[in-house]
Write a sequence for this structure.
């Protein structure tokens, strides 16, 4: 079950870091298109301290907006291997 819990934490670990300063302030709507290449190289255990690292992979223009692909790596404190690596696909509509 650790994999689904880790995926459920992604919004909190990435986009929701500072509610006063949203990641995409000019977007009228942000749509979660889905996740690609989901991998769980190491199990996340109860009590583990986590952080997410996001790397921009690709930006593609779409009708009235942009599609953004980011690789998100969930790191576990004290563990070499990540708990999760995914490619997140979102669309920003302006």
């Amino acid at each position: 079950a650790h994999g689904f819990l880790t995926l459920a934490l992604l919004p909190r670990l990435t986009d929701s870091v500072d509610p006063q300063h949203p990641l995409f302030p000019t977007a009228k709507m942000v749509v979660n298109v889905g996740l690609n290449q989901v991998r769980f190289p190491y199990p996340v255990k109860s009590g583990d301290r986590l952080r997410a690292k996001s790397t921009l992979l690709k930006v593609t223009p779409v009708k009235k907006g942009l599609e953004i692909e980011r690789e998100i790596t969930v790191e576990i404190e004290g563990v070499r291997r990540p708990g999760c690596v995914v490619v997140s696909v979102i669309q920003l509509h302006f």
Q: What stands out?
A: The radius of gyration is 14 Å. Helices lie at 2-13. The first helix runs from residue 2 to 13.
